[in-house]
Design goal:
Layout lengths: L1 E2 L2 E4 L11 E14 L2 E10 L2 E9 L2 E8 L9 E8 L4 E6 L3 E3 L8 E9 L4 E5 L3 E3 L4 E10 L4 E10 L8 E10 L2 E10 L17 E8 L11 E2 L7 E6 L4 E8 L2 H14 L6
Parallel strand pairs: 1-4, 3-7, 6-8, 7-10, 8-11, 9-12, 10-13, 11-14, 12-14, 13-15
Antiparallel strand pairs: 2-3, 3-4, 5-6, 14-17, 15-16, 17-20, 18-19, 19-20
């Protein structure tokens, strides 16, 4: 089901000049276990978000998110909320990359994701990259609340600039709480005005950066070892155990293709399918 986005006027800067509109939109997903399969009682698209059911895989429900308009532009406020109930199994992908764009409204854009997993829930959250176009200013925040028996696989990819153009500004934060305790809280920032982001200590000229987060209760007793990924010399990736039942993969590459291959190699090494 899709609903019309909310358009709100930005605050007036002068009495004579009209002010631009901003886009406010929230999409919602709820997955519940029912009779050995996962049902989707809530699948609500809003604004640029259209959510489509895919063919299930066993008991797992699968969703593809489509972006039906150019968004976010500077000033937009976008949000996706997903709740995975007890014992439910959900896999979410997107059809194409999201492009952050400049726009007439003042201020940065926000793209928030709120994920909540109940006992024994499983979620694969594997969207396509976010591309930071020249002149854009995007702030992302992924907030995850996990029950102690829940399992999560989550990917985040950023491409800094479209072909033959400089990057915009992008700030990304991931906050993970498991059983009321913080498992991970990490923020990164790239682009104009961010000190040293392109220097040898950060990206060193790379334009694609990504993270892969896996949280699994089985890692409590036997966590994966720290590992430098076996990728081409110009791609840098590492698997790092967290102080809890999880691992974080961090990778930097010259372009989106190399980044995807690096993250796929990490998934394969950790024992997950890449399709």
């Amino acid at each position: 089901m899709s609903a019309a986005p909310s358009l709100q006027r930005a605050p007036h800067t002068t009495d004579a000049a009209p002010t631009p509109y901003r886009l406010h939109a929230t999409a919602r997903i709820r997955a519940e276990a029912a009779d050995g399969v996962t049902d989707l009682p809530v699948l609500h698209g809003d604004g640029p978000f259209v959510l489509r059911r895919l063919r299930p895989r066993g008991s797992q429900a699968r969703i593809c998110a489509l972006n039906t308009m150019s968004a976010p532009h500077n000033g937009d406020r976008l949000r996706i909320e997903a709740v995975v109930g007890p014992g439910a199994d959900l896999h979410v992908i997107s059809a194409a990359a999201t492009v952050a764009l400049p726009g007439p409204a003042p201020g940065h854009a926000t793209h928030d994701v709120a994920l909540r997993l109940a006992d024994s829930a499983r979620l694969h959250w594997l969207p396509e990259p976010v591309i930071s176009a020249a002149g854009s200013d995007l702030r992302q925040h992924i907030r995850i609340d996990l029950a102690c028996t829940a399992r999560l696989v989550l990917a985040e990819q950023q491409i800094l600039g479209r072909a033959h153009e400089p990057t915009g500004r992008m700030t990304s934060r991931i906050t993970v709480r498991r059983g009321e305790r913080t498992l991970l809280d990490q923020q990164s920032a790239y682009g104009p005005g961010v000190p040293g982001w392109d220097g040898p200590a950060v990206l060193a000229g790379n334009r694609a950066v990504g993270q892969l987060l896996v949280v699994d209760p089985s890692y409590r007793d036997r966590p994966p070892d720290t590992r430098i990924l076996d990728t081409p010399a110009h791609v840098h990736g590492v698997i790092t155990p967290l102080a809890g039942p999880g691992v974080l993969v961090t990778a930097a590459a010259p372009d989106a293709g190399d980044l995807r291959r690096c993250l796929d190699a990490a998934l394969h090494h950790l024992g997950f399918r890449t399709d």
